[in-house]
Amino acid sequence: MPEKSAGRRAGGKGPASLAARALALIASGQATSRTELAGLLGAAPSTVSVAVGQLVDQGLVAEHGTRSSTGGRPRKVLRLGRTDAFAVAADLGGRHARIGAVLPGGRLADVSTVPFAVGDGPEAALAGLADTLEALAEHRGRALLHGVGLSLPGPVDVETGTVTLPSRMPGWNGFPVAAWLEERFGVPAVVENDANCMAVGEHTVRPPERRQSITVKIGSAIGAGIIVDGRLYRGATGAAGDITHVRIDEAGDTLCSCGNTGCLETVASGAALVRILRAAGTDVHSPEDVVRLATEADPEATRAVRRAGKYLGLVLSANVNFFNPDAVYLGGILSTLEPFVAAVRSQLYEGCHPLVTKHLVIESASLGADAGLAGAGQFALRRALQRALHTVTGAEPDGAASRGAAHGDPGRPPG
Length: 415
Hints:
Blueprint: H1 3-9, H2 15-28, H3 34-41, H4 45-57, E1 61-67, E2 75-80, E3 86-92, E4 96-102, E5 108-115, H5 122-140, E6 145-152, E7 156-157, E8 162-163, H6 177-185, E9 189-193, H7 194-203, E10 213-218, E11 222-228, E12 231-233, H8 265-268, H9 270-279, H10 287-295, H11 299-323, E13 327-331, H12 338-351, H13 354-357, E14 361-364, H14 371-393
Parallel strand pairs: 3-6, 6-9, 10-13, 13-14
Antiparallel strand pairs: 1-2, 3-4, 4-5, 7-8, 10-11, 11-12
Helix pairs in contact: 2-4, 2-14, 3-4, 7-14, 9-10, 10-11, 11-12
């Protein structure tokens, strides 16, 4: 392939753009050598070597030792120039937040769960969360903090860093979350939808050959993140993966939080299971109660969980048949229940063409409750690195011509 074609295939507009993509792959731990970069970027080894040389000269990347290869000379191992840098991140829920430090390569440290009341509104809720994240940053060394990432349970406009028309976040619509965080912390801040964060976090720890995936978060509500050819896909308006409001016959005329009736969310989400079981006389008050009962083999809870998995599988079948992904990953609290996962898997095998399911992986997210946290931190570190690269080379953020690229995308570039 001519180098010019390889550059287009990598999505770049010149050496600086290729360097930005290479930097992102090294930062996420997906590539540690020039050979791996060339394969993932679809670019000529000589072109990649020039881009890596620029990053080394700028101090953004360092060569650290060598690694044996199958034939030829040992490969020099590439890593970030500042491996002690970190981001603080939080994966927000309705009543709590999962927080921690995210290090280059997606490693997590000091992870914990803290109270968080999204219903208090953005300024009050963020103030308390920021204090907690600030204490975490001080504990690890404030001078090494390079970014802040937030995973939010609602639609996000990544260009403006705001929440857009959230159904479960009263008072948050249009609030400039990213700008608020940047002013508070003085470092780049990124906000992203929770399902997208989970998809990116999970993708970075999965085998590189799985380049197409759907990651579904099933908690109080339902959301999905989509990886296409190794990169997060947001869609024309950033709403890609919003399967929660697909209407299904089994939901009847049940009113949904979106104002419509018959949405998947009304019969398959954690909130729906609480409502359904309470109506049947079971004493539950939260999705955690449902999980506890199902784990204890309570027949009503187990039956309800299996039905929810079947309904989710019905909607996913259409998406899987259309998209033909390598994998479907299930995250969120309901994904911890084997009856739920088994019901989704069974429905996908029943509702999809055999060619689609021939090699399809269907399983719970390997990062569990930390997938969204890892993804949010990856977004933040990526954004900080892009700003550093722009400062020294003038390179635009990766994919700046596309919607939402201002906050970067730590997924693998197309290859």
